[in-house]
């Protein structure tokens, strides 16, 4: 009996967007208008690539970025929740599927000593070039019309589950914890027995309730959370059952 916990990262594990937080490193803590306005819907990763070039051009180094990123606050109750999951790893497999990048997530989890809680992290690969610039790439290619170009979280989840099945691992239930519009696609992949946990007041919750109003509700159960202690209470109930 094992549960799979799937976490988004921005506005779920941390209480901010890691990609917009890095702007604190920019001169005057803001981006020039031309750069800010260059974002095109569905092409966030390319936009962040341009942001990282701007930071590099302005002499922002890796250690300054790291210092800034590790000041991002965790969502209320999240530190206790991740501690609880870490103590019960025999019951929970735990993955992150995020539109952030490997460098940011790595820094934040390691600084808080939560790296071992997660079995795998699926996010856009990032690395520092020889000239000290942070570069980022799309996580994968996909054909899902609903998702941004760099990442379809449903595809990630499905491929992970298939790979686990090949290893002989299947899950009693999947619990999907997220907040954003790009979390809807994987939530619609969940079965009746699974649980979607959208963050209260965020896009995912609004999209799920809109579907219910349109009489095409998601198949899985829906449990809304506002603090990670709500998630912890719910997981404690699940493992008691």
UniProtKB/TrEMBL annotation:
Q: Which InterPro entries match?
A: HAD-like_sf (IPR036412), HAD_hydro_PyrdxlP_Pase-like (IPR006384), HAD_sf (IPR023214), Pase_PHOSPHO-typ (IPR016965)
Any Pfam family from its record, for instance, is Put_Phosphatase
Which keywords fit this entry according to its UniProt record?
Answer: Hydrolase, Magnesium, Metal-binding
Protein family (similarity comment): Belongs to the HAD-like hydrolase superfamily. PHOSPHO family.
A molecular function GO annotation: phosphatase activity
Which positions bind substrate? 19, 99
What cofactors does this protein use? Mg(2+)
Residues the entry annotates as binding Mg(2+): 8, 10, 179
Q: State the species of origin.
A: Sclerurus mexicanus
Matching PANTHER family: PHOSPHATASE, ORPHAN 1, 2, PYRIDOXAL PHOSPHATE PHOSPHATASE PHOSPHO2
Q: Where is the active site?
A: 8, 10
Q: Which domain of life is it from?
A: Eukaryota
The answer, when asked if Magnesium is one of the entry's keywords, is: yes
Q: What is the primary gene name for this protein? A: Phospho2
What is the name listed in the Swiss-Prot or TrEMBL entry for this protein?
Answer: PHOP2 phosphatase
